[in-house]
Model the fold of this input.
Amino acid sequence: MSGGRPARRPAPRRPARRSKKRHDPVVRLGLGVLVLGLVITVVRWLLVHWWVLLVAAVIAAVAGVLGWQRARQRAEWERVRARALRMRIAELDALDHRAFEFAVRDLMERDGCRAERLGGANDNACDVRAVDPMGRVWAIQCKHRRDGDRGSAVGVGVLQQVNGTARQIHGADVAVVLTNGRFTSKAIPWGAEHRIHLVDRRLLGEWAAGSRPLWDLLDRIPPPRRPSALA
Done:
């Protein structure tokens, strides 16, 4: 072995760094121009068709109001259910007509019925339809009066509408017109003659605040029949 300096070992190679992928500036510029052009096109279209923004704003406002009303009514009825649905007549007076119909539905359910609210433009004079534990079908038309018994009295015309639809369309055994107000002097005998049960302010208050079901408070209720489900 000849003298001299020992041979140097080759230095270890460092792993090559992976180059970071970079977006091509030309591509980014093209995308920016495309987005800008799209925004300008949309703005110009809206300036020409400004009424679209107006319609959208109106729809959003209506949807917001309806959502707020529904949330308020749901919250109100959660408080009502927490009180086991024993309501004072003043609480019923404070409701709007739609919430009043839901209150009647829930009172029927409290008494063991299967009930549904039908109130609306095509309800055929029946706001609440229910089947009681004895199988009898109830068709209830609700008339809410903001001023209670000081408001306008429910007349024969309403009873005639119920008489023409309760049994024929809704298959009712018991037809009821219910109000937190009063009935006219002609409506009371007309209802008795045509088997339309009238629930006025006094009777409604007794039913809502007590523990007796509605059929225990009315006269001449049909006898029980075989239980049936809601149609």
In short: The chain has a mean pLDDT of 86.
